[in-house]
Amino acid sequence: MQAVQMAIPEVLILEPKVFGDERGFFFESFNQQTFQNLTGIKAHFVQDNHSKSAANVLRGLHYQIEQAQGKLVRVTAGEVFDVAVDIRRQSATFGQWVGVHLSAENKRQLWVPPGFAHGFVVLKDNTEFLYKTTDYYAPQHERCIRWDDPTINVEWPITQAPILSGKDQLGVALSQAEVFED
């Protein structure tokens, strides 16, 4: 496995070593020791989540203001464009975003550290998205920033309005959002 730093250095793309032949493929999708040695991150994952979505569904930009979650995300069927937004007010990259295509074919994973809002848009029908979190889901602390916030200006690879949940339709602008102050 190798780690690729993105424009925001704390966000990492993890590319596994895949062994394949005419029978199929094998790869180690997670190994705590390898993850820690490769990234220097001592994350303790407590929850795994799995979602399935139709094409053009956009989920996010989500975060928990307390019980902040680091996320290790990947796709096992289909494809998404995955985005992390730095919402740590004291950070030099506050309000900036990075994005990457994650797919069943490329088998990449993305590390989204605590202190970041996270979202993705589904590019293929029947996409399955899996993620590990470093803290438990706490709905009372969940927040959402608008997917189309003009100050963040994510360049989503879509040509029509995305399908949003009711909760995501209520997302607020970054300028109005609770953010991480330390």
List the helices and strands and how they pair.
Layout: E1 2-5, E2 12-15, E3 19-21, E4 24-26, H1 32-39, E5 47-53, E6 58-64, E7 71-77, E8 79-86, E9 97-103, E10 109-112, E11 116-122, E12 127-133, E13 142-144, H2 166-169
Antiparallel strand pairs: 1-2, 2-10, 3-4, 5-12, 6-11, 6-13, 7-10, 7-12, 8-9, 8-11
Walkthrough of the structure:
With 182 residues, the protein is mainly beta. The protein has helices at 32-39, 166-169; strands spanning 2-5, 12-15, 19-21, 24-26, 47-53, 58-64, 71-77, 79-86, 97-103, 109-112, 116-122, 127-133, 142-144. It has one domain: Sandwich (Jelly Rolls), CATH 2.60.120.10. It is built from two helices and 13 strands; from the N terminus they run E-E-E-E-H-E-E-E-E-E-E-E-E-E-H. The strands form three sheets. The chain has a six-stranded antiparallel β-sheet, with no helix packed on it.
Give a quick summary of the entry.
By secondary structure, this protein is mainly beta. It is built from 2 helices and 13 strands. A hairpin with a 6-residue loop joins strand 1 (2-5) and strand 2.
